[in-house]
Amino acid sequence: MSVPKILVIPGSARKDSFNRKLAAHAAEKAGRLGAEPTLLDMNAFNAPLYHGDLEAEQGLPETMRTLRQMIGTHDALIVVSPEYNGHVPPLLVNAFDWVSRPDGEDKDNVFAGKSAAVMAASPGRLGGARMIPRLRAFLTDLGVMCLPGQASVASAFKAFDESGQLTDERAAAQVQTLVKRLIDLHR
Ligand SMILES: Cc1cc2nc3c(=O)[nH]c(=O)nc-3n(C[C@H](O)[C@H](O)[C@H](O)COP(=O)(O)O)c2cc1C
Prior knowledge:
By secondary structure, this protein is an alpha/beta fold.
């Protein structure tokens, strides 16, 4: 049986980010269910806002080249994102825009053929529900096959304990189901 490599990408770099906590939970779950997860800290993937002139002069920023390579060497993605005004936050949009560009002679679309599960956490009552279909559409347009279903943490301020562990059982069950489905796709 193969061991799928799953890249877990939080859409927030904030120290106390709910989405980072949810991403850590999903990565741990993926490991327990038999995958090989890599959990990203987006603080290590800073990049200037995409600009065509910058790209023409300098190519991909080194951090985005690394992210591009990491996506390319993983089988699947778990994207765990906040909702900003109903949308995918600029951190993710900018990173994925950079990564969607060719890297010099390497013109492959690194997203093609990847699969993904989407998750969200929000202090609000809707748990990022307006953002999730937009994230799914964005990933689909990049060439990613997104699993139906999602894991969503609403009222996130009361969904994690002091050590950052997810205590919301409904959300934990959603993560379990989704991560297992993603792994089963690659067995
Ligand atoms: C610019 C901005 C827009 C936001 N818009 C929404 C929103 O539309 N829906 C929502 O549930 N939360 C919204 N929030 C609140 C975020 O969900 C909250 O800041 C959350 O903690 C961010 O995720 P993180 O904890 O992973 O950093 C917004 C926050 C910011 C900064």
